[in-house]
Design brief:
By secondary structure, this protein is of the alpha+beta class. It is 63% helix and 18% strand. It has a single domain, classed as Orthogonal Bundle (Ribbon-helix-helix fold). Strands 1-2 form a two-stranded antiparallel ribbon.
Length: 76
Amino acid sequence: MKKRSVVIAGHATSLTLEDPFWQALKEIAQAEGTTVSALIEAIDAQRTDAGESNLSSAVRVWVFRRVKETADRRGR
């Protein structure tokens, strides 16, 4: 796991994620024409609305769901 700093909502914060999650975030951001920080900001807003407290965990769950949805659409 590696700790990385990102800026979300104008504030610096750090996340600790395994490399496959960081790579998936980069790939999703590129496919959507956005930045990793923008994705994390959106995940942060969703987790706050849902009452979740840990951003790193919320990012992992979000990436997992996104990858699973993509695989399901492809019929795997």
